[in-house]
Each structure stands twice: as C-alpha cells, then as structure tokens.
C-alpha cells in the first residue's frame, strides 16, 4: 500500500508529473535467494496486491517487473539453463499473471589487466534460453519483455566496483549494453543513479552515476556515456542489429517507431593508437545526423552538463563512413528527445 501510494503521489500528485518517466516498478530488489525477508508465496501475494492497488489508482499502465536474477557471469553455452537461478524459474512458473516483464542483472568483471565480458555467443545463448522459457511457461497469453535492470562492473580481484571513476567504466558498460541489445534484451537500465546506503547491509555503496552530497554530486565518467544512451536512443525503438568483424567494435542501429528517426551507436574499446574506420549502411538516405563522442577529451568542462554534438554527417547512397577514436563511443542521430 505504501509503495502504490508513493507511485500515485509521484505520477498523479499535483505538480509532480513523473508519469512520463516512471514506466515500470520492481517491488523488491533481488528478493530471493540472497537472504531477503520474504518467502516465495509472500512475494507472489505482494505482487498480486500491488497489481490490484495500481489498477485502482488508474496506474495499470505501470509495468510490474519480476524477478531480479544474475544468470550471465559464467554461462554454459552447451547448457544455457545450468546457471539460471531458481528465482527466475519460480517466477516464470508461479507469477506469470502478475508479471509484466522479467529482468536480470549482469556485471562485467575486471581482470588484472582488462575487463572481462562474457563472449557474445554466451550472452546470446543465455538470453535466447530465457526468452524461450518465457514463451513456454506463459499462462496469460502475453509474452513479457526481458529487461537488463542492472548493468555495471565488478573488479574481479577485489569483488568491488572500485574503478567507477575510470573512463573505461562508461566505455565497456556501453559495449555490454550493445551486446545485450543485439542479443534481444528489450530494455537496459544502469545501476545506480547516486551513491547511497544499502538498507539490507548498511554499507555505503559507491556504485552511482554520480557521487553523494558530501562529494558535491559529482558526475562520474560513466554518467556521460549512459546519459548519451538514455537521451539519444528512443524508449520505443526498433533495433537493426549490427555485426562487426573487428573484436573491438560493437554497434547497433535504432529506429524510433513514432518518428522514423535513426540513432547509430558505435563503441571502440581498442587501445591501439590507430582509430577505426567504419562504414554504416542504413535502409534509406538520412541527412545531417548529429555526431556525439564519448572519449577522454569529451567531458564537459562544467559538472553536470551533457556532451554536445561535434558536427553532422549524412549518408550517400544509404552509406556513410567515419573514423572512431580509440577507447570511445560515437553516436550518430537525428532523433529529437521528447
């Protein structure tokens, strides 16, 4: 009741107007099996209660997202279901009528020298396996979306995300987002907005896109990468998947379903001095795509300002060619954020 009341206040309350940005909610974060205080049956009861309360308050458009699970760190390609957590299987079998979307958490791991991301074939196999499970266990005639509701990074040596202030953090998180999107994940959510205390452990968690008040709400480099993604990729877009023969290049093209506008995201994680030349093909000619660059030289000089476009590029015969700097993300777009 408290949770539904808070959503009602934020969306329907006078002068609040958060309805355009609150599109889905998760009642608990990682409710089980990580030592949480609810049983599986209590969790399902709470989901059903929340569903009814939201409907009564005219908020039935808000998606209920269940559960949180982490299946991807060591996925078995031959048997993708081997590492799927029991919580996901339970929710698929028991909470399908309450769920509007399912979700998972995935963190890439830094090694001693470089970050480790599960190979693309492992990610694709795992997501395909889960999406097939969603179809096979459907009970309400609705095939729910699959969200990556937390993406981030963990230092494999220390177990902590202690490189959050590094430029590479934003770069490789963007690479991971592209791999997940190309593997048919429906939504990507960065974890978390601001450093904060964790209620379960009491620990102060420094995983935010920005630091806390005592540190001046300073934006980390990963904020500038994530914010470009959030601003320039439409929330209602079709994905034109892209493949590259270069292991350091990941890319995807998005087409906004409402306006037909395009956004092309290219990530170059290579550290060699030479930049990468890419060729992008589109279904039609597009003029004056604005170009945004996330690299070590692109951070705004004033805290909190967005990265600004550096110029424009147009297709000729449905193709354009450009140079991607090392350790950078480049976004080309004619999408106008709503």
Describe this structure in words.
- The protein is of the alpha+beta class and 338 residues long.
- Helix content is 24%, strand content 24%.
- It is built from 6 helices and 16 strands.
- Strands 9-10-11-16-13-14 form a 6-stranded antiparallel sheet, covered by helices on one side.
- Helix 5 runs parallel beside helix 6.
- The chain is globular and about 55 Å long.
- About 1% of the residues have low confidence.
Shape: globular
The side-by-side strand order for the widest beta sheet comes to: 9-10-11-16-13-14
H/E topology pattern: HEHEHEEHEHEEEHEEEEEEEE
Individual helix count: 6
Catalogue the unreliable spans: 71-75
The largest pleated sheet is described as: 6 strands, antiparallel
Rg, rounded, reads: 20 Å
Q: Provide the β-strand percentage band.
A: 15-25%
Helicity, as a percent range: 10-25%
Distance between the amino and carboxyl termini: 32 Å
Average pLDDT score? 82
Task: Quickly give the structural class.
Answer: alpha+beta
DSSP strand tally: 16
């Amino acid at each position: 009741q408290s949770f539904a009341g808070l959503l009602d206040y934020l969306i329907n309350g006078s002068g609040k107007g958060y309805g355009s940005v609150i599109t889905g909610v998760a009642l608990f974060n990682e409710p089980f099996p990580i030592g949480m205080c609810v049983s599986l049956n209590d969790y399902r009861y709470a989901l059903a209660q929340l569903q009814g309360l939201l409907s009564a308050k005219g908020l039935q458009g808000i998606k209920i997202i269940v559960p949180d699970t982490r299946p991807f760190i060591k996925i078995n390609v031959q048997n993708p279901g081997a590492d799927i957590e029991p919580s996901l299987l339970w929710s698929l079998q028991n909470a399908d009528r309450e769920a509007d979307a399912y979700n998972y958490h995935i963190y890439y791991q830094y090694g001693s020298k470089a970050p480790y991301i599960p190979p693309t074939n492992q990610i694709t196999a795992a997501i395909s396996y889960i999406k097939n499970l969603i179809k096979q266990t459907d009970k309400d005639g609705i095939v729910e979306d699959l969200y990556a509701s937390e993406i981030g990074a963990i230092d494999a040596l220390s177990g902590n995300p202690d490189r959050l202030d590094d430029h590479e953090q934003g770069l490789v998180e963007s690479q991971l987002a592209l791999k997940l999107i190309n593997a048919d994940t429906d939504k990507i959510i960065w974890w978390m907005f601001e450093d904060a205390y964790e209620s379960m452990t009491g620990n102060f968690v420094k995983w935010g896109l920005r630091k806390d008040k005592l540190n001046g709400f300073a934006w980390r480099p990963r904020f500038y990468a994530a914010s470009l993604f959030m601003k320039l990729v439409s929330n209602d877009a079709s994905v034109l998947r892209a493949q590259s023969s270069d292991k350091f290049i990941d890319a995807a093209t998005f087409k906004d379903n409402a306006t037909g506008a395009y956004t092309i995201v290219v990530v170059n994680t290579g550290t060699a001095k030479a930049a990468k030349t890419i060729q992008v093909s589109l279904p039609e000619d597009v003029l004056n795509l604005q170009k945004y660059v996330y690299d070590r030289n692109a951070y705004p000089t004033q805290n909190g300002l967005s990265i600004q476009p550096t110029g424009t590029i147009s297709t000729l015969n449905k193709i354009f060619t450009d140079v991607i700097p090392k350790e950078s993300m480049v976004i080309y777009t004619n999408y106008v954020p709503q």
